[in-house]
């Protein structure tokens, strides 16, 4: 969008309409949250009126869409892209096959019988047999069986598909939000990347290698004193 400092009202309207439709909220319900009429919100969406910044910020929060995305229709289209049904269903099948294979391998490696696994996990023998043959496993039963086989439940969580990458990004965001404010500010400062890269590289060093680095830095400091 190349309009200088101007934000076209129609762009805001398109963004607000698309975001609300994507989230599934009604005009009346959304307007009530803001203390305005449904007609006023409708006028915002049709580009007849331009909302105040506080109202626009609140709508951004309600729709879970960043403000800069909300007022850029082309970007919003990507942000609110609906998942493809065929792709999701295919992914479920693939993930199910991977999960079954992982369980079968762990079961064979454990050397226990299906009956013993059933008893340890607290899952009926008939279910254990079906699960090992490829039937979908309810998440609570999967947790019980993985623990009985000495596996980490996290091993079965998707980390590679589009869904897995999305989950990882959400986890990373939650971790970032929980950081102290001074650390977040430090990360936002672009001139700090050199220090961050150095710290990252230092993580891979063995204790003896770290001692050598510290000793070298101490000598350097003494020579500069």
Would you mind describing this structure in some detail?
The protein has helices at residues 9-23, 27-34, 38-45, 53-63, 67-70, 73-79, 85-110, 114-121, 125-132, 139-148, 162-177, 181-188, 193-202, 207-224. The protein has 225 residues and is an all-alpha fold. It folds into 3 domains: 9-79, lambda repressor-like DNA-binding domains (434 Repressor (Amino-terminal Domain)), CATH 1.10.260; 85-156, 434 Repressor (Amino-terminal Domain) (Orthogonal Bundle); 179-224, no CATH class. α1 (9-23) packs across α3 (38-45), α2 packs across α3 (38-45) and α8 (114-121) packs across α9. It is flat and about 70 Å long. 12% of the residues are buried.
How is this fold's topology laid out?
Blueprint: H1 9-23, H2 27-34, H3 38-45, H4 53-63, H5 67-70, H6 73-79, H7 85-110, H8 114-121, H9 125-132, H10 139-148, H11 162-177, H12 181-188, H13 193-202, H14 207-224
Helix pairs in contact: 1-3, 2-3, 8-9, 8-10
């Amino acid at each position: 969008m190349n309009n200088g400092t101007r934000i076209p009202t129609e762009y805001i309207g398109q963004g607000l309409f698309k975001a609300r439709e994507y989230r599934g909220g009604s005009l009346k319900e959304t307007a009530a949250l803001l203390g305005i009429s449904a007609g006023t919100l409708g006028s915002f969406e049709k580009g007849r009126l331009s909302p105040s910044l506080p109202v626009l910020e609140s709508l951004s929060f309600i729709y879970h869409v960043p403000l800069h995305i909300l007022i850029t229709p082309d970007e919003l289209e990507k942000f609110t892209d609906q998942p493809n049904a065929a792709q999701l269903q295919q992914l479920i099948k693939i993930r199910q096959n991977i999960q079954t294979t992982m369980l079968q391998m762990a079961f064979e490696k454990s050397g226990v019988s299906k009956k013993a696994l059933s008893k340890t996990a607290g899952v009926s023998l008939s279910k254990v047999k079906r699960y090992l043959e490829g039937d979908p496993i309810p998440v609570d039963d999967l947790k019980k069986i993985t623990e009985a086989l000495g596996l980490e439940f996290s091993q079965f969580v998707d980390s590679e598909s589009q869904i897995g990458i999305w989950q990882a990004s959400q986890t990373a965001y939650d971790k970032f939000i929980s950081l102290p404010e001074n650390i977040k500010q430090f990360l936002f400062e672009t001139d700090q990347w050199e220090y961050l890269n150095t710290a990252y590289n230092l993580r891979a060093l063995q204790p003896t290698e770290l001692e050598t680095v510290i000793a070298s830095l101490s000598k350097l400091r003494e020579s500069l004193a």
